[in-house]
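Homework-ish question, so no full write-ups if that breaks the rules, but can someone show me the predicted structure for this set?
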Amino acid sequence: MFSFANFLDLPLIWYGLIVTAIFLYVILDGFDLGLGILFPFAPSERCRDRMMNSIAPFWDGNETWLVLGGGGLFAAFPLAYAIVMPALYTPVILMLLGLVFRGVAFEFRFKAAGKSRRIWDYAFHFGSLGATFMQGVILGGFVQGIAVVDRSFAGKPLDWLSAFSVMTGLALIFGYTLLGSTWLIMKTDGNTQEWARKCAAYVLIIVAGFMGLVSLSMPFVNEDIKNLWFSWPNVLLLSPMPLLSAAGALYLWRDLHSQRELRPFFLAQGLFLMNYIGLGISLWPWIVPYDVTLWQAAAAPESQSLLLIGTVIMLPVILTYTGYCYYIFRGKTSHEDAY
Amino acid sequence: MTDFLDPVVLARIQFAFTITFHIIFPSFTIGLASWLAVVEWRYLKTGKEVYQEIYRMWVKIFAVTFGMGVVSGVVMSYQFGTNWSVFSDKVGNVIGPLLGYEVLTAFFLEASFLGVMLFGWKRVSRKMHFAATVIVAFGTLLSSFWILSANSWMQTPQGYRIGEYGLFYPTDWLQVIFNPSFPFRFVHMVSAAYLTTAFVVGGIGAFYLWRKQHVRHARVMFGMAMIMAVFVAPIQPILGDLHGLNTLEHQPVKVAAMEGLWDTQKGAPLKLFGWPDQEQEKTLYAIEIPKLSSLILTHNLDGEVKGLKEWPREDRPPVALVFWAFRIMVAIGVMMALTGLVAVVLYFRKKLFQTRWFQVWCMALTPAGFIAVLTGWFVTEIGRQPYIVYEVLRTSDTVSPVVGPNIALSLLAFIITYVFVFGAGSYYIIRLIGKGPDSADNAYGDHGIKVPALVTNLGTPTGGNEHV
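A: Not a homework solution, just the prediction itself:
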């Protein structure tokens, strides 16, 4: 049996890969879901058609990163997968059901005529909204920590529910809406773009508020996180993170009041990246906070090695053809008379 | 009450429900993707519009089905953790990487190129579009390869050892991936998927012929479906028989349940029908053909076949379900093979496209493939019980620490959602069939959008802005 464990820190590599997959999911499906949240507020039916067209070729590929996140966690850290899923049972199931409604809406809406189209408009909106809120709740429930006894979840069914997890749920709704509206600025023009610009500016204020709120409440969730961020010299070493976030938010604010079309989207993604890195630093090295480390939960080195070969070969291929698909459908989404 | 909310029972019902719904879609899209690739290839080769029009009609149905397959599949990738966390912890080392390979090699491929297949018409060259179709078809087969390998390992586990905490560790990957039942299950399932698609396409072709609608298209659909019925339908029982012999070698108790055989017997009869009673340990009201079971299973009239009583009660699967599911599957397989036979006769009498009763017969068989696939899976999955990994790990020992009412509620939510969503999906598919291939419409793979889907300012005239 081959294994690279002698010369590679396999758990660390896999941690990096899964964290990356989840991040790619967040920023890619994030704009799809954000667009779904904005959907009923669009100024016209034509505008809605256009919004949906702008992501129809991509959503499926974007959602696949979530499958890779789940499947990868199962393969590389089975213990973490086995503890986290039962602990977050209800929000995970509700997220999946939300994604079912969101996903089928793409196909059904184009096939439906007259009044029944309304059903899929709402399925798309509430599916996106519910899935997003639950993803935020999952994040909050995860950060709060999970009770573990003997390789198994040992808490109560509603452990995940708290003011903190509801807050992260709401925060993610606005975060994804920011991604969705900046995506629209990039992919549309005219009315739709103008409206998206306004939305993005409002949402940015709320997002900035939530960023502050979540960042400030994190240290109260766990003593270690407090010590990590507020001890000397960490305060200094980690200061670029909040400073860069603030600068990014300011730049984004300025861009939203100018004619820039591309940069807002990438700045919004940058904000997500900063928050994500901050979160990663806070939770290090836990894979089930605050009980199981990434090394404790790692799959057998043989298993991690086998899948690593496939990943090293396939990941660049996947990124290449994903890029190619975005390239094929580049430019502005066609005008509202798409039918 | 406590029985009703038993987490093991509820988790099993939930998994059975979500996987049963899910498998319907892939068993159709695996075949449909390959068939669409053939149709597009015929179009590129012959330039005949009829192929393009057929492609355009069916790619819409493919899109709806594939969409439902994706959303129900995402659910599956989390069900292992939410409902079977102990299983995930114990065997994650072995089957985790197989599922990981499925995502890496197949899911991304399918998802990305599906976009090109649906929306890429007029944005990429014809050849590139054809390549996208072929890639999606290839992706569906790769996906089947990995998931069936993982499932087969649970049926016939090998290449592992059990270590600390009862965790499974791989010792030989080739033995894990190519475990004894995998080649048989893979071939049997892929040809089942192809037949499922063939009978759907053939049934709808027959429907158009019967109504004398879209006759040009209907002849192609019906004709191509009958080619499959003639050449693949008769092979399927042979593949099934080989698979069955493999099961006899590795999971004899499953075969005993399929046969409804309780006592070990030399020259065992084949029970055509009957009611296996788990309590009384016999098959009631059985109609039997003497010695046939021995002949089929051992290729010898007096061969010995092991009965269920060889195993303790607690190690036997629910016999009646396995027994009946198996008979339904076989009956459909026989009907499919018969269809092929009749098609050959009618073809040589030059009446293949005119025989009314045969059109009705084919219309009636439209859902046959789905029923056969589902009952076949019931046989193999229920027949594996009470084990989740055959003879090594019991299903009841692997459930998540989630309370019963929680699973009951989520099960209810799944049932309501799936019935509503997939009911609507079926309705839209039926409507697409009702509309038929619309030759007046020049868009292609347009996904319901008349003007080529996205983007206007690329310098290509799409006519998008003029019609506001």
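Now go work out the reasoning yourself. Hint: Chain A has one domain: 10-328.
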